[in-house]
Amino acid sequence: MTFSRRRLLHLALGSATALLAGNRRVLAGNDARADRLHWLATADSGSGDRHQLANGSAMAALHRRDPVDLVVMAGDNIYDNGNMREVVAKFERPYRELLKAGVPFHAVLGNHDIRTRNGAGQIAYPGFGMKGRWYTLRRGPVEFFMHDSNADWPEQMTWLKSSLAASRAPWKVLVGHHPIYSSGLYGDDREAIDRLTPLLRRHGVQLYINGHDHNYERSVPINGTTYLTVGNGGAALRPVVPGPNSAKAVSTYGFASLHADLESLTIEAWSSKGQRLDRARLNRNGVLI
Q1: Among 243, 242, 160, which Cα is nearest to 198's?
Q2: β-strands 70-73, 36-42: how paired?
Q3: Is the four-CA dihedral 184, 186, 192, 193 of positive or negative sign?
Q4: Burial class of 76 by CB neighbour count within 10 A (0 to 12, 13 to 18, 19+)
């Protein structure tokens, strides 16, 4: 089959236009506007069952009505053992629509993820957007400090202290798998409280996102930091009893949606059935407004 020069030019222009459109979709996720960011947060998600699939559908539905710049995954990305042979069933299929739309995901490792090769496969997998076992990620007005809460604290603390001190982002968000303050099964972690909370207070970290407890919980601000558990992403739920630090605590499948601009951060929780469960708004000092 032969084509005229005009036909070849038309095909080339069509391909270039399609490629440019795809690149724009990806760049829209990777390079959010400097003055605002919309992201989703989930954890304990990688079950591959109907609950994760329902959550993925609800996340995609939210993206269609309110476009998302990225998704943060706070660990236990693939149950039970972090085996990358299951990545299609437990990541690519549940989030197919978001991935097809070019929404980037950025993950940290959970305790289940390190059971296979200490998480090396997940770190190397492009879909999880990890720049290492711990790394920083600046998008719009938000800087994320993605840390491995499983181990290696001396070296990691050196990185975290220097990274927080160097940050000039309006919003600082620390993401790890294990909770610091929690009303769920594992409760408050006194060692993490002693190790991390002085650092969060000193550097004005307004939000900590975690999983591990299989429920949703938003704390009241504690010394300027809100603690957000989003371990309701797909794994079997556990009961949660609101405690003295709880602003909202529910055992329901879902995820969090967060909007940041230069003045405020809005946190919303959504169920896998598309019902809003919680809403709060913080100022730059981490105070509810």
Answers
A1: 160
A2: parallel
A3: positive
A4: buried
**Contact indicator for 59, 95 with CB cutoff of 8 Å:** yes
pLDDT for 234: 98
At residue 32, the pLDDT reads 57
pLDDT, the chain, mean:
91
Token pair, residue 117, equals 């090769």
Sheet with 254-261, side-by-side order of all strands: 105-107, 70-73, 36-42, 254-261, 264-271, 276-283
261 neighbors 69 (Cβ within 8 angstroms): no
pTM above 0.85, yes or no: yes
Buried b (16+ CB within 10 A) or exposed e, 158-187: ebbeebbeebebbbbbbbbbbbbbbbbeee
Q: What are phi and psi of 226, to 5 degrees?
A: -100, 135
Q: Which residues have CB under 8 Å from 199's CB, separation 6+?
A: 160, 161, 164, 205
Both tokens assigned to 119: 């998480």
What percent of the chain shows pLDDT beyond 70? 89
Query: Which tokens sit at 164?
Result: 């927080």
Measure the CA–CA gap between 160 and 155, rounded to whole angstroms: 9
Instruction: List residues bridging with 156 in a β-sheet.
Output: none
